[in-house]
Amino acid sequence: MSRPGRTYTYDRVQRGFHWLMAALIVAALGLGIYAAWQVPGTSPRRELLDIHKSLGLTVLLLLPLRFVYRLVAGEPAYRAPPSRSAHAAATLAHLTLYALMLLLPLSGYVYSAAGGYGLPWFGVFSFPRLVPIDKALSQAGYGAHYWIGWGLGLVLGLHLLAVAWHAWVRRDEVMGRMWPRRGAGGDEASA
Ligand code: HEM
Ligand code: HEM
Predict the structure, then answer these.
(1) Mind telling me which Pfam families this protein's record contains (predicted)?
(2) Contacts for 154-158 with beta carbons within 8 Å, 24 or more apart?
């Protein structure tokens, strides 16, 4: 799914999706962990969880758009292509991140919706409840949310280690594919 010889960086839309969603997810992770420490029903847990849910549901809405765009636009070519196995490992890690970016907010949605809790979007509107109120389903959603959260934390840690290794040890082109430096001859300039 690459466009050989055309461009060596993800396009603006893909970079926009990546960095916007990375910021939303990192903020949601931090808020979720902090809120989980607070006593249920107290302030500021409630308010923080409302923001957490709003961020997470935004991720859930953006993900299909990002995924379809990625399928259509493909990935940029490499100046110095990695080995087959390195490329396969990166693809597997990225696909796992896509799957976790779907399953984590989805499990949070089931937890909150089946528990009869609110589904706000920054106080502007509320998302519809598409599952019945069901304590067992809500508990299952919570269990899934907790463990998928750990899974995302783990794979994200590997993602960041891999990026750091490329940027600081190998000093290769990988970081520049998602964060091109001005004048580095990325997009159409090098077509
Ligand atoms: C916050 C620091 C982050 C940095 C420095 C970073 C850096 C990068 C870089 C350099 C790439 C391109 C890799 C390549 O060309 O092979 C990339 C791709 C990717 N990153 Fe990140 N990333 C970060 C956070 C995240 C987060 C929070 C997520 C989601 C949980 C994420 C998900 C992805 C995915 C799915 C791809 C593959 C893009 C595609 O091919 O469609 N990243 N990232
Ligand atoms: C990218 C999206 C999301 C991420 C990264 C995320 C991550 C997390 C994490 C790490 C926790 C702490 C788990 C614990 O230690 O118990 C948490 C808790 C929570 N999340 Fe999410 N979440 C996301 C989306 C959602 C969504 C969409 C909802 C609901 C609509 C939601 C509802 C909750 C609730 C209610 C808690 C509190 C759990 C408790 O202590 O009772 N999350 N989330």
Answers:
(1) Ni_hydr_CYTB
(2) 155/93, 155/96, 155/97, 155/100, 156/25, 156/97, 158/93
